[in-house]
């Protein structure tokens, strides 16, 4: 399945934001993060997503997934 133009624009926009945040003039916190240091944040977000799924909360699930347009 080929990604849509909109999906690619969104993905490329995300890549630009990440490059800016991790660049020389970017956010000091973002620049020092590693896969390991981000692990607790990923676990927390996954837990919140599962909680929204378990409670059958569509709006909460969309919020956790960052899918505001699905509400």
What does this protein structure show overall?
The chain has 71 residues and is mainly alpha-helical. The chain folds into two domains: 1-33; 34-71. Helices cover 70% and strands 0% of the residues. It contains four helices and no strands. It has helices at residues 5-22, 28-31, 35-54, 58-65. Helix 3 packs antiparallel against helix 4 (58-65). It starts with a helix and ends in a 6-residue tail after the last helix. The mean pLDDT is 88. Residues 33-66 form the NTP pyrophosphohydrolase MazG-like domain.
**Proportion in β-strands:** under 5%
Q: Compute the separation of the termini in Å.
A: 25 Å
Show unreliable segments.
none
- DSSP, total strands: 0
GO molecular function: nucleoside triphosphate diphosphatase activity
Organism: marine sediment metagenome
Domain NTP pyrophosphohydrolase MazG-like: 33-66
Pfam families: MazG
